[in-house]
Design brief:
single chain, about 325 residues, alpha/beta, Rossmann fold, Dihydrodipicolinate Reductase, domain 2, 2 domains, eight-stranded mixed sheet, six-stranded parallel sheet, 14 strands, binds nicotinamide-adenine-dinucleotide
Length: about 325
């Protein structure tokens, strides 16, 4: 299996380290910054040239949000399997285009929403089978200051990040809510820029109500004084299940032991990158369908993009 990676920034390095650990050859990397290609077997500054020359089995897309659609479509059109970081895209109209390219390709598309692979999330998914969920809450309280937003020109802008805390930090929690509780039929709420006025164009705080079979509520902010573990709370048949990246509690009692292996990158990303990447390669080698494909990976971002659209139109 031959891998290639586009975007050797914060998360690109996490993918590289997981590939190394799993003994998968990283044949080439592409980054527009020459220093980020250092140490690679072969380095490119143009992803199209890399894909045409290398014909990789798997292309990892770890670039800023606004570049995802074009890179996914190009790689799929050239028969590669593609593992793209979240969010799939920042434009509603691109979702159908990506899914059409996926359907037409001999390659598969996977979306890196790795929190589904946390043992705590997997426990929740199993526990909730056949149960009626009364309601659910998601909470993301992280600290992202001006220094964080200065670390990449693409951050904090509608045109390049496509939004703020919701599409970037809280997308995993939106994904978990929809994975466990189903898709909303409507989404309402509000968003604000509380602490980062003049620093970012996008929201640093949002409060969402997702109406549907299971009513869900989400509070997400980048204005917390420190990072708190993201949390999903599900109320079902008289019991309360709390899901954190590293543990789950049923009526306050731990139901899954803490596991210290498999941490890559910042702890709040969860433990899932290693498991998700291993599963993707397993599916590619066995030619089995990878479950977190374009359709699955678009569910949460569709909700977020519909919400942004409604806010923009004052609805
Ligand atoms: N799954 C997770 O938990 C998680 C965590 C962090 C980031 N991410 C996602 O990973 C992606 C990248 O985020 P990041 O924090 O690593 O960003 P980053 O800014 O640190 O890295 C992006 C890299 O892409 C490179 N790049 C930009 N334009 C390029 C182009 N045209 N061709 C090739 N390379 C190009 C940049 O030079 C940079 O090295 C985003 O989609 C982000 O949301 C996911």
């Amino acid at each position: 299996m031959k891998a290639a990676l586009i975007g050797m920034g914060v998360i690109g390095k996490v993918h590289r380290d997981v590939l190394r650990e799993q003994g998968i050859e990283l044949a080439a990397v592409c980054d527009v910054l020459p220093e980020r290609r250092e140490g690679a077997k072969r380095g490119y500054d143009d992803y199209r040239e890399m894909i045409l020359r290398e014909s990789p089995d798997v292309v990892h897309i770890c670039t800023p949000h606004y570049l995802h659609t074009e890179m996914i479509v190009f790689a799929l059109e050239h028969g590669c399997n593609v593992l793209c970081e979240k969010p799939l895209t920042i434009h509603l109209a691109d979702i159908d285009r990506i899914i059409a390219a996926e359907d037409a390709s001999s390659g598969m598309l996977g979306v890196c929403l790795q929190n589904r692979y946390n043992p705590s999330s997997a426990f929740a998914k199993r526990y909730l089978v056949g149960k009626k969920i009364d309601r659910a809450f998601g909470e993301v309280r992280w600290h992202r200051d001006a220094g964080y937003y200065a670390s990449g020109e693409w951050r904090g802008r509608w045109a390049t990040e496509g939004g703020g805390v919701l599409i970037n930090q809280a997308i995993h929690t939106v994904d978990l809510l929809q994975w466990l509780c189903g898709d909303p039929t409507d989404v309402t709420g509000s968003m604000q820029n509380i602490s980062l006025k003049g620093v970012i164009e996008v929201e640093d705080t949002a409060h969402l109500h997702m109406e549907g079979e299971t009513p869900c509520e989400l509070f997400a902010t980048n204005t917390a004084k420190e990072d708190h573990p993201a949390k999903v709370k599900v109320v079902t048949e008289g019991k309360t299940l709390e899901i954190y990246p590293d543990r789950a509690l049923l009526d306050g009692e731990p139901v899954h032991p803490e596991r210290e292996d498999g941490w890559y990158g910042k702890r709040m990303y969860g433990k899932g990158h290693s498991a998700l990447i291993a599963h993707f390669y397993d599916c590619v080698s066995k030619k089995e369908k990878f479950p977190l494909d374009g359709r699955e990976g678009s569910r949460s971002v569709r909700t977020v993009l519909i919400f942004y659209d409604k806010c923009r139109r004052g609805m």
